[in-house]
Design goal:
The chain is of the alpha+beta class. The protein has two domains: 3-166, NADH Oxidase (3-Layer(aba) Sandwich), CATH 3.40.109.10; 179-219, no CATH class. The protein is 34% helix and 12% strand. A four-stranded antiparallel sheet has the order 1-2-4-3. Helix 1 packs across helix 5 (110-127) and helix 2 (23-33) crosses helix 5 (110-127). Bound molecules: flavin mononucleotide. Flavin mononucleotide (FMN) binds next to strand 3.
């Protein structure tokens, strides 16, 4: 699969088959994660790998209990808050493998760097026919000192990006994206040759393209 396909086909997957992900596959996607850039090449990412349906369901139950106990009032606004109110709902979507990207050290941008590693991991998985879903709702629980101790994770590691991995039991629906919104645009060079996709976008928005901010860019009807 080329990179374009991997980017456009990756979707957060919330239904998984029972098929187990192999250790070799996990190693491959984790290696891909480590190819992410980091400032001064500090590579602040560390990985936790937790595998097994029963183990993950136990994590799910406890992470959800913690989440529910510490909910902020704004939680009701979340579109899936109903799911979380139902005790049966698996916070890990019944996946069999969880990879947690932790930050340790990193003087400048450790969280961003772990996010880049996470995207690499998810794209590599997508390219290998694996499905993934980031599980932000697990983070608070994973960062509890007693949970780090239980899992053998060093105290100074911060869980940044939990991701479940498995084989998809469904093709997730397309999740629409808004058109790019440009808030700065200053293109000072004359271009030779054929128009780029950006030029075409600007033209379709009524701009002549290539210069000045695309002030005519349409705003989406819905921000979903
Ligand atoms: C930091 C982060 C945390 C997320 N946490 C969750 C989560 O806890 N549970 C979940 O089902 N999806 C979670 N998602 C998935 C998003 O809902 C999903 O990426 C978004 O709706 C776009 O859909 P797509 O990934 O299929 O393109 C998270 C995504 C990110 C980037």
């Amino acid at each position: 699969m080329d990179i374009h396909d991997a980017i456009y086909r990756r979707r957060a997957t919330r239904r998984y088959t029972d098929r187990s992900v192999t250790k070799a596959a996990v190693m491959e996607i984790v290696r891909a994660a480590t190819q992410a850039p980091s400032s001064m090449n500090e590579q602040p990412w560390r990985f936790g790998v937790f595998h097994g349906a029963a183990l993950l369901e136990d994590f799910s139950r406890r992470a959800k209990a913690h989440l529910v106990a510490t909910l902020s009032p704004s939680f009701d606004l979340h579109p899936r808050s109903q799911d979380y109110a139902e005790w049966d709902h698996s916070i890990v979507h019944h996946a069999g493998t969880l990879v947690v990207i932790y930050a340790q050290g990193g003087r400048f941008h450790p969280a961003e760097e772990c996010g880049l590693a996470a995207q690499n991991l998810m794209l590599a998985a997508s390219g290998m026919g694996l499905a993934t879903c980031p599980i932000g709702f697990m983070r608070p629980w994973l960062n509890l000192p007693e949970i780090k101790a239980e899992l053998g994770v060093p105290e100074d590691c911060t869980a940044i990006f939990p991701i479940v991995v498995g084989y998809a039991a469904e093709t997730p629906p397309d999740v629409p994206r808004r058109e790019p919104e440009f808030v700065g645009w200053r293109w000072t060079e004359e271009k030779a040759g054929s128009p780029t996709p950006f030029d075409r976008l600007l033209r379709s928005n009524g701009e002549v393209g290539g210069r000045g901010a695309p002030t005519g860019a349409p705003r989406p009807a819905s921000v979903g």
